[in-house]
Amino acid sequence: MSFSHTTSPKVPTRHATQEELAARVASGLETLDTQVDAFVRPMHAAHRTAPAANGGWSIDAILEHLCLTNVAYLDAMHSALEHAGAGAGAERTTGDWRPTLGGRLLVASMQSKWRLPAPKSIVPGPTPRARVLDALLGTHSVLRDLLRQAQGREWTRVRMVSPLSRLVRLNLGDAALVMLRHGERHAQQMDRVHRSLIA
What we know:
Blueprint: E1 16-17, H1 18-40, H2 45-49, H3 59-86, E2 96-97, H4 101-110, H5 132-149, E3 159-161, E4 169-171, H6 172-198
Antiparallel strand pairs: 1-2, 3-4
């Protein structure tokens, strides 16, 4: 299996209705889930935990990194929605979504070929959690549910600081796209690790 075509080309990056963005993120996550599950689940445990040939993360370590990142983003999104619900101004009006500048740049960075250093808070430890693949798929399910439940809010007004960089401010739609693109990026990394181990 190859992840060379994992990136979802139809996910909007500049303007969409909230329903369009939620549907396309959900579709991208379903594709990602199907491919990652089919790729990783049949592997022998020793193959999943073996470091890459260049000494980089193992496949299970990449899955753990994705879990850590997704939980951080989901916590930030839930907090932002709770804060928006406690005050006025975030009720849905137009339902039109546009990315912030920080969101657009962060999503673009996930699609670049440059290696990006991971903040310490999301660097996996030496032993990934048990059932790490299922844990990752579970975070995607939580994201889909969150986007459905948040349709009554105006996503451009549900704002948060990126949990990984205090300098980057995002809205709710930005955060969902970051999670999707980040997962797609590391799916390709898992493919490269696998190929390095069987070369």
